[in-house]
Amino acid sequence: MKRVISGAIGISLMLGVVLYGSPLLFFCFVVVVVLVASHEYFSMISNIGVKGFPIEGGVLSFLLLLGFILGIKWLLIFSIIFPVVLFATWCFRGKSVKVALDTVAYTFFGIFYIAGLGGYFLLIHSLEGGSKMIIFLLLLIWTGDAAAYYGGRKFGKHKILPVVSPNKTVEGAIANILGTLIASGLSHVWFFEEFLLSHCLIVAFMCGIIGQFGDFFESLIKRNCQVKDSGSLIPGHGGFLDRIDSLLFAGPVFYCYYQLFLGT
Length: 264
Fold this sequence. Notes:
Blueprint: H1 2-20, H2 23-46, H3 54-70, H4 72-93, H5 100-118, H6 120-126, H7 130-155, H8 170-190, H9 197-225, H10 240-262
Helix pairs in contact: 2-3, 2-5, 2-6, 3-4, 3-5, 4-5, 5-10, 6-7, 6-10, 7-8, 7-9, 8-9, 9-10
């Protein structure tokens, strides 16, 4: 019941911001989600003795998201100065040369993993009809995740990558892809006529696959850090990073597909 209630609240909040919120409100929403997920990331890596620079990482994550709004020039400028800032931070705060690379590298990785990939949702939202595209993408991932969960519990027999995620099965992965394809077809009929059905199905197939890679990738981080969930802020669901891991990989794929085949 906690899972159902918290999920309903979260989905309602997200849909409200996407459909009725201003671009500034959506930007603030993405910033909050990214910063919370970043905090969870730094908490996880601290479990294996890597403290990182969570405050500086949060500030740089915000600047990276701001770069997505300001344009490619600022995005490149921020990206170039990040390593310098992190190295300077270690110079003032670091105590051991032996762990310097770990501290800087883990912080740098966390910024681009969460804020760098999450920023693509700002790019999608800025496109004409971007709000519909984000709703479409969310429905693909949510439906795929639900199909994988129930399909895996009902039919799952063959483990797909047990060393990383023991509960994931081949049958669940297939159910995930089928779920995204069904969701894309229904979305096209209900509200998403901007894309031809063929494009909807192609995007769904790609996101269904790459989204699962995002899930496995976060599972790999959690397995390495020896934690079950990234956090506990969402009752029954774990942390924010647990909820957006698939979206972090699917968002860039969706945006690139649009620019390559659908953009004018």
